[in-house]
Amino acid sequence: MSDNNFVNGQSYEPLRRLLSDSKIQELQTQIRVNSNIEDTNWDEQTIKLKDLEQSSWQPKLLIAIDGDYSKSIIQNGYPGAEIGYITVSTVVILLEKVRELENEQFIDPKKFRETEQPTSIDSLFVGCNVVLQGEDSAKSSMRKILYIELKKFQVFGDTETLLDTYEYLLKERFASGRASKCPHDNCDADYEFSLGEYKCNSCGGKLYSTDALRLHELLNSSGTSGEMYGQIKETFKKLQLIHLLRSFEQQPKYFSLLRDIAFFIEGTLAVFSTASWLAKPIRTELARLNTKVSEEFGSNLMVLGIERTGSFVNHFAQIDVMQNGSNNNFPNQSAFLITNKYIKEHIVFNEQPGYIYLEDTSFGRKFFYKTNAGHRVVASVATYNNYQSNPETAFPAQFPRLIEILQLLDKLVSNRYENSVTPLATAHAEAAIPLNLGKSIFDKIAREIRANSTNK
User: Fold this and answer.
1) How far apart are alpha carbons 294 and 258 in whole angstroms?
2) What is the pTM of this model?
3) pLDDT tens across 337-369, in order?
């Protein structure tokens, strides 16, 4: 028997006995199998790019948001003391400059790099057994840091901060009444939602507006807090998206750029875990902003989520494989617009009457697209009204700017970035190795784009 069959001197023989056990075989006979998907004719079920009315629109900017986190044990005299390092990167790609360079016989690499302008929010959060001076626990320390970090960042020098954006969304939460439980360990009372820093009426302990996110509840007091760091990162990404949109709105001279920007965010357009309540005010705010852009410029916003991993990515790969093993089952330049019924039957099995996948946590609609080059993309597009958000039907009109999105995906997906697009690959690299921490780039870029537009 080879060394690979041993772990710490133990054979895999018990595992083999388990897998061949009659109980496993009996259970397998009872498990429901989704087999009818193999008979689907995807050429008939998909929407072809060539059948949609083509568009000549080309974005001036691509803005991509991604994030990353790492954790580290620190030495402070307490066992398992941990800190988390969280980065949310925003990359702006100047497509007009890219198109200009593409016309040159030789593209100067330095000039090409200048078409990508990254900036990062980087934050350190405390975990197990790490307490700041003046605080009484790791949890109270983490709550304080979260509030301060949101207060630090802003896109333009004279627009609202990321905390202001969050507190704007929080105001809709006020209508739901009191919060469930004061975050202080010695207090079980409900407390009032409010803005800024304030005190609990029951215990007198300090409270922050950011306590409503309840991310502190994910801190593990006796081990690693990876789930908390991950959810902070995801919450920051969604807040950054709304912050960018609102900041452009607050700069009248740059507001018109919103019709010419494609926003990308890594992952699905949804908010999960303790901060999931943000999804509702995000939907409301996106609808408000889109109405304003549409009325002034006759165009919807373009906001896309791109999934690199997960059940939908795995399912798309599965249905693309033919019985002979080739990857040609799903036609190129075709999109499948996904309904709630399809999700329940084939991806996230659920037979409960009335169940709607991500009903309370999402602010977009999912679809599959296979590009002209044969690359698969699982995307979500932001929706702005009840008709678009209704998952029981899937018509092209329910997916804002669908033709322009598909045309753009054809250009942005390549072999180098499987299940992703080039702007998000750049944003992910920036988040993983943040070289431009705190660097404010948006004022410069907006001025540059506006100047170019004026001169034409």
Assistant:
1) 10
2) 0.88
3) 999 999 999 999 998 999 999 999 999 999 999
